[in-house]
Amino acid sequence: MTRTEPEPAVAESAPAAALHAGTSDPRTLIMRNLRQSGIYIAFVAIVALFTVLTNGVLLSPGNITNIVLQYSYILVLAIGMVILIIAGHIDLSVGSIVALTGAVSAVLVIQNDQPWAVGALAAVAVGIAVGAWHGFWVAYVGMPAFIVTLAGMLLFRGLTLQVLDNVSLSPFPPEYQKVAGGFLNGLLGGQGYDAFTLLIAGIAVAGYTVSVFRTRLARIRYEQPVESFPLFVARVLLVAAVVMYFAWQLAHARGLPIVLIVLAVLVLAYGLMTKSSVFGRQVYAIGGNLSAAMLSGVKVRKVNFWIFVNMGFLAGVAGVIYSSRSNGAQPAAGNMFELDAIAAAFIGGAAVAGGVGTVVGAVVGGLIMAVMSNGMQLMGVEQSTQSIVKGLVLLLAVAFDIYNKRRAGTTR
Description:
Elements: H1 14-20, H2 26-53, H3 61-86, H4 94-111, H5 116-141, H6 145-164, H7 174-181, E1 183-184, H8 195-221, H9 229-251, E2 256-257, H10 258-276, H11 278-288, H12 290-295, H13 300-326, H14 337-347, H15 359-378, H16 383-411
Antiparallel strand pairs: 1-2
Membrane topology: Multi-pass membrane protein
Protein name: Xylose transport system permease protein XylH
GO molecular function: transmembrane transporter activity
């Protein structure tokens, strides 16, 4: 008998591998990615539910625009909050910082007749200073973030009352109001719709598709498990359909909100930072295993300091957006905002113990809260019932995180 030599294996190109790659254990892969993929399914399901319950009013062009305008500052806060939670910290003072930064801006612009940009920049600068204050106590003194920011919640609420002298200030000039209430429309025309809004949405979908495909290729290159290609395509098409429908509704209302552009830039920048930068990987390392991060040479104090500075910066941005939206500054502004931001992060997939979470997930979690609040308001549900529902959703999200951890522990 003659021996037949085996034919040499032909290496498959990366794009071809991306088409055919899967996992030998689909159940394991599904369970591993359920927390990240499930949030998008849950979002679509909640939108569909409230669309039916409100007879389609939820997805009307005008209402979608209102959702963007009314909850944009919560989404900005959620971006900073999820980064803190990934690192194993939390910030209970962001609502008070929003109030303080808005008050500083109002005093400069309304009382002292300064240009609107001066007020906005001063608000952001105050937010950064507050973040540095918190970062110092947490990173260099070693106090728990819970205690530091709880004290900050009281401290900066009191400073807000002093800055405003216990009275509300309004109105802001029209230029300042456009930060949260302005629109870009008519730049490319369109018959009954704004073509510019659709163009921007199309570019965003194309960028998202390229990004997730490159991520898939990278995971395959490092022999990490990925979902099957049909499931991957279905996920991309679902995201594209949701984004384009959302844009189509905006295009038939007042066009592209300026605040949505601000939010998109922040999501893109922080998404890249957390996924592709050394600093982002260090944040995950600190939250995942502090001792290992220190042994690996991560400068834990420095990273902790800057993530609180970043939270202050985003709280300042949110303060400008909120004061622009409300067209004034009030002593009680920002009340309970910290709880909304924390809920958005946890519902979006952040883990209680740290080390897990994404910026996009936190934004989707914030959108889920926004859709639920808006939908219940359209249905005429009482405020007390709305609080009960949101509290239960947060509780279930955290319970799901704990269940996943216990399940993972038993399967190792």
